[in-house]
Each structure stands twice: as structure tokens, then as C-alpha cells.
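Reopening this ticket.

The earlier resolution said the output was attached, but the attachment link was broken on my side. Pasting everything inline this time so it's all in one place.
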Amino acid sequence: MIVVNDGSTSPEVAMELDRYRSERVTVVHQTNTGAPGALNHAISLARGPYIAVHDAGDASRPDRLQEQSRALDAEPSLVGVGCFTEDLMVQDNGGTTREKLNDDKPERLNHRDFLAPRNFLSGGEVMFRKEIHQKVGGYRSAFRYAQDRDLWLRMSMLGDFGIVQTMLYERRIYAQGVKASLRKSIMQKQLSHFARECAQMRMQKGYDLVDIFSDQAPMYRARTKTAADNLARYALWYLYHDDHESANILADLAIRERVTLRSVGINAIAKTTTVSNGRHEAIKSLLRRKISKFDMQKPETLIRR
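Inline output:
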């Protein structure tokens, strides 16, 4: 096991991690490089042929490594293996509630599946072949978020992914952190779209924008309807919670991304900052129907002062 402390300066964190050092556990303390750099560093230190990533805060079932390594042993053509996962909301009091059970994945995923809008595999549930990871260039720092989607797209050009049809991984969502994670969610969705764009370009030309512009490549991504509608949806979330300043920022970004029916409509609503009480309640009722139960939590404002 290799544990990477990617930039925490807390002495308590360092001491706690160092307690676990042993022949079987390597602990690395480094300056912050972001997830791609930390993952690549850990993988470079790994001695085995298979890599299983485990995200901080999540939980792997005791038989996860055994089940996934068996699947890779049984099918040498597979580049990696995922599994069924469960999303758990961890409340402030420590209690957990199931948010979603992701048990509708096919037994096999090919490159075409990863080009679809849905990302079937989360970053922490996969075990993959180290050789394939190295061959495609590893995680790329241009993807501060969605680095897993970018990696799966490049790896799947060399072979399929299998899915162990058992729940082996719990993704934990902490209620206290949901409000502050909206910026990350926005950037993750935008970079996930960009990863698909890069994959399509690589199929056609043999290279993509990251090969040309490195970390600055996302600046040159295509503007899409999907990205515009996602930004508009996040603007709805802020409107529901009466944060008109943040809603206006996202509504304007949605229009700049692409003019769509949704981006225009949400932009118009966001500009309505002073309305009568009756109209305000009517708008709130409309927004309540448009956003999911999970979105009801008030997000942190986008403006940092």
C-alpha cells in the first residue's frame, strides 16, 4: 500500500500517517501537486503489475482487491476492472444514508462506452494494469479534475474494461463538504466534457489538445450545448437559495458557453433580482421542481472575499 500526503502541512496528519509505515505500507509526504501528480508518483513506486486506486474518505469492501485481481488474471486482454459502487451520505452526526446504488453497469465497457455522456467508472473503484497506465502516459495534469475520465478514455483505446458484478466500493459524500464542493463539481463536469473531446480528436488525428498545449489545453476546448445547460442548472441551484450574485455569474457563463433555450431562460430569471413576494414564491416553486433532492442543500457562494 502506498499513501500519498499531497501537500498537507499539518504535523498531526504527518504523525498519524507515519504511524502506519511498515514493509507493506509506504507513506509519502510531498508538496501539493494535485491529484494527477500524486497518483502518478504513487504508481511509480508500486512494484506490482496491478494498481488499485482508493480515494481518501471512501471505503473498499474486504474482498475488493481479491475479486478485481482475479478478474484481471482471468482475462489478460482487459486493461482494467471496475465494480458496482454505493454512494453514502455521511451526516454531521456520523450517521449514513444511502444516496445511490450503482448496480446497473454492463459486464464489459469498450471505448465507445466511455465516449458516451455517462461516466461508468469513478476514480477510486478501478483496478488497472500498471503497464497500460504507463503506456498511455498516466494521469495528465491538464485535468485537475476528471483525470480518471481522461485516463479511462486513453486506456480503453488499448482494450476493454471489465466490471465485477458485485458491490465492492463505497463512495462517501460528507454533508459538511457538499456546500463547498460546488466549484469542484462545475469544473469536473467541464473537464469531463473536454476529456471526451480530446478522445474524439485522438481517434481522428492520433493526438489531442493536451499533447499540443499541455496544461493550458482546456482554454481551447469547444463550446458545447451540454456544458451550457449544466452551467444553467447550477445557476438554478443558486437561484433557489436566493444567491443571485452567484446565479448571475453562472447564468452569464452559460450564455457565453452557448446560447440554448435553457441558458437563455435561466439567464432571464437570474436577472430578476427584485420581484413581488407572490412572484418570488412562484419562481421558488418552479425551481423546487427543477432541482433534485440532493440539490436542496444550500451551496457555498461562488464569490470569495
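Reporter confirms the inline version is readable. The chain has 13 helices and nine strands. The CA atoms of residues 2 and 42 lie 6 Å apart.
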